[in-house]
Amino acid sequence: MKFMTMVKTTKADIGAPPMALMQAIGQLGAEAGAAGVLVTQGGLMGKDESAFIAIRQGKVMITDGPFAESKELVGGYAVYDVPSKAEAVDWATRFAKLHTEHWPGWEGEIEVRPIFG
Predict the structure, then answer these.
(1) Which pTM was predicted?
(2) 76, 4 contact by CB (below 8 A)
(3) What is the fold, at CATH topology level, of the domain defined by 2-114?
């Protein structure tokens, strides 16, 4: 079963991730790839480069970034193909621990969601 993990930060102004974190994420991705469970992963650019498409009262509205302050920003994602939600949560927890080890002060959450199909 496939699961998407979304990394969300509540402190969008904390700056760029430390190189040590990026290297550790690369190593974890290599481990997941070697285990045959990583489908894809990546980081997302900031709100300045984004677009937001909303439907309000039957009309489609497009707004280019940057956007007004939001509570959280999705900064990255990964898709795992694993037998259970517990295993997807395990990979996401390992990813979260890299943040606590390599980026003190970073705050956020990782959402793990099953993908239809």
Answers:
(1) 0.86
(2) no
(3) Alpha-Beta Plaits (3.30.70)
